[in-house]
């Protein structure tokens, strides 16, 4: 049959590699990353953490503010579970969707428990002599991420 | 490695006026407990003839916050004091970002030329690879 412009799809054809070779390549990469982690050859680590219904990209020594009240007192150390992603300069570990607790450890301390700035909640209807004004202050907590650690237990 | 930001709490009240009744009850009952629970805060109690009772909080960066405690019960004063003890001395204004990092990018900040092949390897209809 003659070849027209619609015989083959317009995207370039991709040849998938052999599954056995692919598995060997995967195992090699995993062992290399394990060795790198065990040797401690990574610089700064960053992590994506799911906390207070939000996802934060977090490094060590940085500040995060929640719009809620945590049950911990000021100065308590907190370990954050629910880590989605951990990365360094050369490699990243992506979880599906979470990473194991034996792999990553994210520690934070509660620094401050304040209230937000006074927000004004006002309702007004014109020509009806109706206005209500209310000042809202939300409690907030400030956390400081102390450390992010990884352990070489990949498989 | 946690340092409480509250330096001093000064409780100014008058021993006779009616609106500092809560302050007097707080001093009798809960002030010692509060001072023991927060050992790194200094609590000064000074009864003097003042028009309205005040709770003055000083923080490590020098900001001074005064709160009125007139006609408040002693539990409310305890709650106020714990709230002030948890705060730091920064101004309570609108903050633009709920996060702050000193090192925002680790793997290099993205610019529109990352992950793009360079002009030397592009194979176009007219461009020959050099």
Can you put this structure into words, describing what you see?
The complex is a heterodimer of chains A (155) and B (130). Chain A has one helix and ten strands. Chain A has one domain. The mean pLDDT of chain A is 86. Chain A has 155 residues and is mostly beta strands. In chain A, strand 8 and strand 9 form a beta hairpin. Chain A is flat and about 80 Å long. Chain A starts with 18 loop residues before the first helix and ends in a 5-residue tail after the last strand. Chain A has a four-stranded antiparallel β-sheet with strand order 2-1-5-6, with no helix packed on it. The longest helix of chain A has 21 residues. Chain B has 130 residues and is of the alpha+beta class. Chain B has a domain of 81 residues: Glutaredoxin (3-Layer(aba) Sandwich). Helices cover 22% and strands 21% of the residues of chain B. In chain B, strands 2-1-3-4 form a four-stranded mixed β-sheet, covered by helices on one side. In chain B, strand 3 and strand 4 form a beta hairpin. In chain B, helix 1 crosses helix 3. The mean pLDDT of chain B is 81. The interface between A and B is medium-sized, with 29 and 21 residues. Chain A: Belongs to the bacterial ribosomal protein bL21 family. Chain A: This is Large ribosomal subunit protein bL21m. Chain A: One of its GO terms (cellular component) is mitochondrial large ribosomal subunit. Chain A: InterPro entries: bL21-like, bL21-like_sf, Ribosomal_bL21. Chain A: GO terms for molecular function: RNA binding; structural constituent of ribosome.
């Amino acid at each position: 049959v003659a070849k027209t412009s619609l015989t083959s799809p317009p995207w370039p054809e991709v040849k998938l590699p052999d599954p056995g070779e692919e598995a060997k390549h995967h195992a090699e990469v995993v062992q290399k990353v394990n060795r790198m982690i065990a040797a401690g050859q990574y610089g700064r680590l960053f992590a994506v953490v799911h906390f207070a219904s939000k996802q934060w990209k977090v490094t060590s020594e940085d500040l995060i503010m929640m719009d809620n009240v945590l049950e911990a007192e000021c100065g308590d150390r907190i370990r954050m579970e629910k880590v989605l992603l951990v990365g360094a300069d050369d490699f990243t570990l992506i979880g599906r969707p979470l990473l194991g607790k034996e792999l990553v450890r994210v520690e934070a301390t509660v620094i401050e428990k304040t209230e937000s700035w006074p927000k004004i909640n006002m309702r007004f209807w014109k020509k009806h002599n109706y206005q209500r004004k209310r000042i809202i202050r939300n409690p907030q907590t400030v956390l400081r991420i102390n450390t992010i650690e990884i352990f070489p237990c990949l498989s | 490695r946690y340092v409480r930001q509250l330096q001093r709490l000064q409780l100014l009240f008058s021993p006779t006026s009616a609106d500092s009744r809560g302050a007097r009850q707080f001093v009798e009952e809960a002030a010692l407990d509060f001072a023991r629970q927060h050992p790194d805060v200094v609590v000064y109690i000074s009864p003097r003839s003042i028009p309205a009772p005040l709770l003055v909080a000083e923080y490590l960066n020098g900001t001074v916050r005064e709160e009125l405690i007139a006609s408040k019960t002693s539990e409310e004063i305890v709650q106020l004091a714990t709230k002030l003890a948890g705060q730091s001395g920064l101004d309570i204004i609108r903050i633009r970002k709920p996060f702050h990092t000193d090192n925002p990018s680790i793997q290099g900040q993205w610019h529109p030329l990352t992950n793009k092949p360079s002009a030397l390897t592009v194979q176009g209809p007219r461009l020959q690879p050099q």
